[in-house]
Amino acid sequence: MSTNNLNDMSFFDAQTSFEPEDILAAMPGDHPRMSSALALGRQASESGQLDVAALSRIVNELYAEGFPAGSPFADGAKVPSTASLSHVADDSTLPKPAVSPTTSQSPSTFSGFANGTQAPSALSDLSALQLQYAANASNAQDFGNTSGLPDLGFGQSLGGLAIPYENELQQLLGVTSHSQAGVHSAGSTQPNTSHFYFLQDSPFNQTQALPAAAHPPFDANLVRKDFPILGELVNGRPLIWLDNAATTQKPQAVIDRISYFYQHENSNIHRAAHELAARATDAYEEARETVRRFINAPSVDNVIFVRGTTEAINLVAKSWGKKNLSAGDEILITHLEHHANIVPWQQLCQETGAKLKVAPVDDSGQVLLSEYQKLLTPRVKLVSFTQVSNALGTVTPAAEMIQMAHRAGAKVLLDGAQSVSHMRTDVQALNPDFFVFSGHKVFGPTGIGALYGKPELLNDMPAWQGGGNMIQDVTFDKTVYHEAPSKFEAGTGNIADAVGLGAALEYVERIGIDNIARYEHELLVYATAALNKVPGLRLIGTAKEKASVLSFTLEGFKSEEVGAALNKEGIAVRSGHHCAQPILRRFGLETTVRPSLAFYNTYAEIDVLVNALLRLSSNKLPSNIH
Predict the structure, then answer these.
(1) CA-based Rg of the chain, rounded to a whole angstrom?
(2) Which residues contact 350 (CB under 8 A, 6 or more apart)?
(3) Which of 88, 89, 240, 389 could form a disulfide with 571 if both were Cys (CB 3.0 to 4.6 A apart)?
(4) Hey, is 539 helix, strand or coil?
């Protein structure tokens, strides 16, 4: 809000106490809601718990009604609604679109750096907590113009007067100290430093760790405000995005970070002395450091940027595989695999004479470890399997399977495409030789992902593509290559989306991957029980350990018919074979319907899904479903 009218403190006299109750009493007019808010604050001080919902309602009612006549805060035109700043979900059972399709959207906090202007210091000093809940594009019109927001503390806003307990108030309300510099990422244990250049100050420059426990308790309704697309209407109904195993939606922080890159940092990386090359290079390499931290890799040299999981697996097959496999060797996969973890190995076997073997699963969709053990003969040179099945949601016993493979002398590639957004990834604890994932599965952009490899393997692997960026010296007689990771990043990479991937992982860190895992598990349990009540519905994949996937068939309906009917209700699910035909055929099927969950989905959305399926199964279709 405007702070200009806060400098007039003439209603105070020299004897006025700075106790909040006395300040309120000295202000002209009655302030019942401010008194109520103060009472909540006193209660929070005594109990250690703050009723944010009640406080938010009081503040919003106060702003909506305006201040009493005679109050120094009575200029209502200068006090916009705080609805866009509220962290509290409204009481509706279903999320409502934040704006109508015809409403023009104002920029969010970061995208509001109009016409390429540099972010004001008040915004560049925002903490990760504040960024997480900054007004997104759908409600930024309530936020007011932030481009000239003065960087004022509480004392300054009260005419320079010292305020008792100011530091405590700042911590309680999430206000950033002036001593803090830059935006911080939870879970970071070391400051980012420029690997190549001195980087000019940026609102995205990470300089100091935010304590891992500093994020607020997880609230799905609150998190939804960070995702502008969740305000969309589909067929006149709020979008319910249950196609997260195919791709996840993007938070405003990621959208803004990519936009900022193109507005202020866009350049090719490395090999230049100009300022934009410095900015772009540092942004790119800081994203690599974020990936390293997120998966707990020992070094950034272990992290290679690729287009996604598919390219990462192909890289290992074409480079490590061609060098290390020959006729008579074996590659072992499981029945659960995505086509991307089948086809490259089939191609490699055709080229080398190696054989592809498959570990079976039981009727619940879990790997049969006894059969897997039998297949781990000395001829097996590589084991490649998924940590979470994209078709069934099965969570494989990855750590145990990796240990078993290593005892047999095999290398292991772990496919983390479906696990990375749902559970903590620690490649040093799991100990795979390779780990792969895609950015768009973890709230990042499409066309970007990462390959982790152990250094002794990466250094021994030949380059799989040739071109610029991956060479030290080129003559017509020979080429000298860089070491990893540059050796595997030929040509101009997807720089902006690598930066966007870094922003996505930092966003997940701020929320807390353990919070996400806990909430999604509870939501999955609820959804599983609810779907089991739908007549004629058969869940496919019922392993004890599952993550966020609910494949099913509905008696009397083709999968595409169910998908089309749900689309009329605004519900997005995947209908088809999910690029995992072998595992569906293991259950005698060609296709299933696959709702898949993320942390921004809600219990209310599950209820809408189940009610739609109940109507469909009883042939009581709404008039607009055909």
Answers:
(1) 27
(2) none
(3) 240
(4) strand
Q: What phi and psi values does residue 237 have, to the nearest 5 degrees?
A: -125, 155
Tokens, residue 587: 């259950």
* DSSP code of residue 555: T
DSSP letter (8 states) at residue 467:
S
Burial label for 626, CB within 10 Å (0-12, 13-18, 19+), is exposed
What sign does the CA torsion over 342, 348, 353, 354 have?
negative
CA distance 626 to 621: 8
Task: Record the tokens describing residue 291, joined without a space.
Answer: 């990936």
Mean pLDDT of successive 10-residue stretches along the chain, which has 626 residues: 42 53 66 70 71 61 49 40 31 34 35 36 32 34 37 43 50 43 35 39 47 58 96 96 98 97 94 91 96 98 96 97 96 98 97 98 98 98 98 98 98 98 97 98 98 96 86 88 85 94 97 95 97 97 96 96 97 96 96 98 97 88 46
Position 506 scores a pLDDT of 97
Whether residue 579 lies in the annotated active site: yes
**pLDDT on residue 317:** 97
Measured between alpha carbons, how far is residue 217 from residues 88, 213, 511 in Å?
A: 12, 9, 8
Q: Among 368, 579, 614, 625, which one carries the catalytic annotation?
A: 579
Say which residues have a Cβ less than 8 Å from residue 34's Cβ, sequence separation at least 6. 24, 58, 62
Could you write out the DSSP letters of every residue in 141-160? Answer: GGT---TT-----HHHHTTT
Amino acid at 361: V
Question: Could you tell me if 291 and 303 are in contact, meaning their C-beta atoms sit under 8 angstroms apart?
Answer: yes
In 388-512, alpha helices (H)? 398-407, 427-430, 455-460, 495-511
